[in-house]
Amino acid sequence: MAVYSVTLEQFHIDTTRSRNDDTNTVAFGLRAGKRSFPTQSHYAGDVDDGDHGVNLTFPSVVVADGATPLVFNYTIYNGNTGKLAGGLAAANEILGEKALDFVQQAGQPSSEVSYPDSGGVDLNGAGIEWKDGSWLQFIPLVRLGSFLFPDCDGFVAIGSVGKTKAGWDKAIDTAGGTTYRQTIRYPGSDSPAGCGSNSDYTVTWSITRHRAAGRSVRQFLRDHNLALAPGLRSLTPGERLSVRELLN
User: Fold this and answer.
1) For residue 133, with 0-12 CB atoms within 10 Å meaning exposed, 13-18 middle and 19 or more buried, which class applies?
2) Greater pLDDT, 26 or 248
């Protein structure tokens, strides 16, 4: 078993979608097995080229079984989110469902399933680039119709990443044993006439693993604000969990 913290750290703009500033709202969601965590949001406001901190975090996510999927997803939208049916959070939820379904259907005990299964996350910490704008394939999944809105509003980044616990542990071990961080580039499609050039964004996220080895169970739970209500299984609904697994 391990406890993970998943963080959407920042986005970087090389080119805005609008002629001047983009006005961005960020949504960030996470699922671990049968557990769904409430979508978090961050209003970045008017932004131009450069780095922009987000720092949305899901802390203390407990996962016990190697085949349990842990998936997260994020969307960055420029403009009025009121144009989106159901809002940005609803779109984000649909992305999470898609990734979770894929990992669950493909997974075997202790397997290292990843989503996307191609063009996705490598294990070397190198930035990934959707060179052909293929990240736009996510648009139909969130049932929002065309990427091109009548004005300059639109998505500038959409990502959905999932692995089984075994897959995340391998990625973290390869990256040094504590934190696996990734930066992914999202080049935009054609902007409507009168807007700026095609948008060009990168998004950085990370996942950190915490373990209880060498410490008391009580102190470990206290450190991560975890409470039993009652019994160990309350930490991982739908998964089996023993004291031995908790200490590994």
Assistant:
1) middle
2) 26
Give phi and psi for 189, each to the nearest 5. Answer: -95, -170
Q: Tell me whether strands 35-47 and 22-32 are parallel, antiparallel or unpaired.
A: antiparallel
Fold classification of 2-115+134-211 is Immunoglobulin-like (2.60.40)
* Domain boundary assignment for the chain: 2-115+134-211, 216-247
**Tens-digit pLDDT profile for residues 75-88:** 898 888 876 656 77
User: Which H or E element spans position 100?
Assistant: helix 87-106
pTM of the full predicted structure? Answer: 0.77
- Reported in sequence order, the residue ranges of the chain that DSSP labels E, i.e. its strands, are 2-15, 22-32, 35-47, 50-63, 69-78, 114-115, 128-129, 154-164, 179-187, 200-210
CA distance 18 to 111: 43
Q: 233 and 30 in contact (C-beta within 8 Å)?
A: no
What is the average per-residue pLDDT within 126-152? Answer: 52
- Compute the C-alpha angle 240/161/245, nearest 5°: 20
The one-letter amino acid code at 247 reads L
Residues 5-29 have pLDDT tens digits of 999 999 999 999 888 899 999 999 9
Nearest Cα to Cα of residue 97 among 79, 80, 73, 113: 73
